Structure to design on (662 residues):
């Protein structure tokens, strides 16, 4: 088998040539299109036929998996669909990935024979087939994107007894505020690669299993250098809900897993007492369409009192902190967003950096 | 507004009788004036304007009276002592450590205009400090561009859950002179004439914040204020500082493709998600140029 996964257009041929097998089930393709709405796969076993809307993604990083799980679990934009009729097809699914799918009751198969297939009358689990698409690349950048969560953890806690302790800490800080949300991504293997990269920079040192922060200032510098201004879609509009009503609805959606939301980093700058005049009703949400409905927002600039930006990556929601019923961004996120904004915001970022360099981030 | 993190620290100062007459300027002053205008629904030159932001600094201008009657300056120093401020730089900059564990602090800057010949107030050089050596414990950083700051300062109301407070802010004419000069330092910095104040990573000049402040000050002009500014501009027509600042304003914004205007647009687009295009005619032709009396002088 070639170690380059097929692209989306090649997948029908793979099914037709029976290169994708999941015994004892047999697959039959009914339709294939660019979107999940048009791609239907029929699985047959013991006379039972189950139709799945499926989506193949060539990339199979943890972040792709978590985004897909989130989309499938709450398919708000696709009325009539449920997570039970969805099937993810990725080039490879590790056992850890299968556990995540199972926890979220979503079916998924790979091109190697691994998978979990859920149907009304059967549940098939296959794992252990090797990954022929494996690349041994080290992670490209431990200071940006979701993988930087592991780096950011060291600003919050100086040492971790083991890699799995680091992973647990990262999980808790990413998902505790959203108990109903699928806990996917942040894999142990990724944590290990990040720690290796940080060790090479002497930012952390390993003492047996223990991983200890060695150079906080260098970590801050490299996180700062990798910060970029957000270019995600933002909707500005007007809601008639009171702040308290908004907070209550967002809180309920957060804990039931229907939506992830958090105040933006800039919007949290006043909370951390470094900048006043920021628009506090600025939220990151992982589903713009759901949030607009939930908060009864009418788009438009006239008398606008709320802004919503769609962000799906875990890093956005990492280390959010509840205070008086409101979920504020992590001080780390606030610092980085201020840093990539204007000159006055950069002055405020310097004040935040003083706090972060002190190591007393949780006292903020 | 009432939950502004800096507000309690301003209020604890201005509610002291010894602080009567202090004038609040800087980014926080602009922010409070904007909030006041919005709450009182006054019509301003430009209606849609970004919300002013402020860091944890309080900039106060002290009238020369504070040192002419030295008891006033001494009384104000006692207020600062009582509130926990300690000297940070010379005797014009103070800092107040705040929680947690004193890692954050409020910075308080005191400024004053240049005394006129007949005003018996000491000015010590290097750097020029107004009122230094008069036994009061405080001085004001001499600010040449503040020549008009004691003319017609305006009282604005701050409404909080605890009550209403009043504070003086400079008249827009005086404020614009201060801010245009500060914004022009950015051009001087670009030309290598003064030491840079740029961010070590991004290279963005910290002085650019003054460019945005000028836009917000112009946008906030009411019709009455603009008329008053025209009169003040006429009063100070021959003042060397006023003349210099008019030239600096022309250099910064005199044409739609002038550096100040281009940078102002870039800043607004970069920082504010709901940014609007800046109307050059309103800002310059009908706003700043008129308010500084440039039309009259040219």
């Amino acid at each position: 088998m070639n170690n380059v996964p097929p692209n989306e257009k090649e997948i029908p041929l793979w099914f037709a040539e029976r290169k994708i097998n999941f015994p004892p089930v047999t697959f039959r393709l009914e339709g294939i299109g660019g979107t999940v709405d048009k791609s239907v796969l029929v699985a047959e076993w013991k006379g039972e036929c189950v139709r799945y809307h499926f989506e193949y993604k060539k990339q199979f990083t943890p972040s792709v998996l978590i985004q897909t799980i989130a989309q499938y679990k709450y398919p708000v934009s696709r009325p009539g669909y449920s997570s039970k009729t969805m099937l993810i097809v990725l080039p490879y699914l590790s056992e850890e990935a299968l556990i995540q799918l199972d926890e979220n009751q979503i079916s998924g198969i790979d091109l190697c024979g691994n998978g979990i297939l859920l149907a009304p009358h059967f549940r098939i689990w296959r794992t252990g087939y090797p990954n022929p698409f494996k690349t041994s690349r080290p992670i490209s950048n431990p200071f940006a994107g979701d993988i930087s969560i592991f780096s950011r953890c060291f600003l919050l806690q100086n040492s971790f007894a083991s890699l799995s302790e680091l992973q647990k800490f990262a999980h808790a800080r990413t998902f505790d505020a959203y108990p109903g949300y699928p806990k996917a991504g942040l894999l142990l293997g990724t944590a290990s690669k990040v720690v290796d990269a940080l060790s090479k920079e002497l930012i952390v040192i390993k003492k047996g299993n223990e991983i200890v922060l060695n150079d906080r200032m260098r970590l801050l510098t490299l996180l700062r250098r990798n910060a970029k201004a957000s270019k995600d879609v933002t909707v500005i509009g007007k809601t008639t809900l009171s702040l308290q009503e908004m907070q209550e609805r967002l809180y309920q959606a957060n804990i039931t897993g229907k939506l992830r939301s958090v105040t933006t980093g800039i919007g949290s700058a006043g909370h951390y007492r470094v900048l006043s005049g920021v628009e506090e009703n600025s939220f990151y949400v992982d589903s713009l369409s759901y949030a607009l409905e939930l908060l009864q927002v009418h788009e438009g600039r006239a008398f606008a009192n709320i802004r919503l930006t769609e962000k799906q990556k875990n890093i956005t929601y990492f280390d959010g902190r509840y205070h008086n019923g409101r979920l504020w961004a992590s001080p780390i996120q606030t610092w980085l967003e201020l840093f990539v904004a204007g000159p006055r915001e950069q002055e405020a970022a310097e004040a935040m950096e003083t706090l972060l360099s002190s190591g007393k981030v949780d006292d903020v | 507004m009432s939950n502004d993190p800096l507000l309690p620290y301003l209020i604890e100062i201005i509610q002291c009788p010894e602080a009567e007459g202090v004038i609040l300027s800087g980014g926080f002053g602009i922010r409070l004036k904007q909030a006041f205008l919005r709450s009182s629904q006054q019509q301003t030159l430009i209606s849609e304007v970004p919300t002013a932001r402020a860091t944890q600094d309080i900039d106060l201008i002290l009238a020369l009276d504070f040192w002419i009657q030295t008891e006033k300056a001494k009384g104000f120093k006692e207020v600062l002592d009582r509130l926990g401020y300690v000297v940070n730089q010379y005797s014009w900059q103070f800092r107040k450590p705040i929680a947690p564990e004193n890692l954050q602090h409020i910075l308080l800057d005191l400024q004053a205009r240049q005394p006129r010949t007949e005003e018996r107030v000491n000015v010590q050089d290097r750097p020029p400090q107004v009122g230094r050596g008069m036994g009061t414990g405080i001085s004001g950083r001499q600010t040449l561009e503040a020549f008009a700051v004691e003319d017609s300062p305006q009282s604005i109301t701050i409404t909080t859950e605890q009550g209403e407070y009043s504070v003086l802010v400079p008249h827009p004419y005086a404020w614009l002179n201060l801010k245009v000069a500060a914004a022009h330092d950015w051009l001087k910095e670009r030309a290598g004439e003064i030491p840079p104040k740029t961010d070590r990573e991004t290279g963005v000049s910290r002085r650019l914040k003054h460019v945005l402040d000028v836009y917000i000050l112009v946008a906030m002009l009411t019709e009455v204020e603009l008329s008053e500014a025209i009169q003040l501009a006429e009063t100070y027509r021959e003042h060397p500082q006023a003349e210099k600042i008019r030239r600096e304003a022309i250099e910064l914004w005199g044409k739609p493709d002038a550096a100040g205007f281009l940078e102002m647009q870039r800043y607004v687009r970069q920082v504010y998600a709901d940014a609007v295009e800046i109307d050059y005619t309103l800002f310059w032709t009908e706003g700043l140029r008129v308010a500084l009396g440039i039309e009259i002088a040219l």
Notes: DSSP finds twelve helices and 17 strands in chain A. The mean pLDDT of chain A is 87. Residues 11-126 of chain A form one domain. The longest helix of chain A spans residues 343-358.
